[in-house]
Amino acid sequence: MPATVNPDECVACGACQDVCPESAITVNDVAVVDKDKCVDCGACVDECPNTAIKLE
Predict the structure, then answer these.
(1) For 5-27, b where at least 16 C-beta lie within 10 A, e where not — what string?
(2) What is the band of 50 on the pLDDT scale with cuts at 50, 70, 90?
(3) Mind listing the pLDDT tens digit for each residue in 2-44?
(4) Element spanning 53, H or E
(5) What is d(CA 37, CA 11) in angstroms, rounded to the nearest whole number?
(6) Hey, which of 25, 26, 32, 55 would disulfide with 17, CB 3.0 to 4.6 Å?
(7) Cα separations (Å) of 31 from 2, 24, 42?
(8) What is the pLDDT of residue 36?
C-alpha cells in the first residue's frame, strides 16, 4: 500500500520529499503522496521526524 500522511502530525518540513526516490511526495501545507508513483519503499517513513507518514 502507498504511504499515507496524517495531516494533523505533518509539519511540512519536506524531509520526506527530499528522500523519496520516486518523487512521489509534494509538500505545500502538508505532505501529499502520489499513490500512482509511490513504490512503498518506506524511505519517507524512516525520514519523517514527526512519524506523520505510515505504510499500511
Answers:
(1) beeeebeeeebbbeebeeebbeb
(2) very high
(3) 999 999 999 999 999 999 999 999 999 999 999 999 999 999 9
(4) strand 53-55
(5) 22
(6) 25
(7) 13, 10, 15
(8) 97
pTM for the predicted model, two decimal places: 0.91
Amino acid of residue 36? D
How would DSSP label each residue in 7-43?
TTT-----HHHHH-TT--EEESSSEEE-TTT-----H
**Cell numbers at 53, concatenated:** 507518514
Domains of the chain: 3-55 (3.30.70.20)
What cell was used for 14?
Answer: 519536506
Query: Which residues have CB under 8 Å from 19's CB, separation 6+?
Result: 43, 44, 46, 47
Round the CA-based radius of gyration of the chain to a whole number and report it. 9
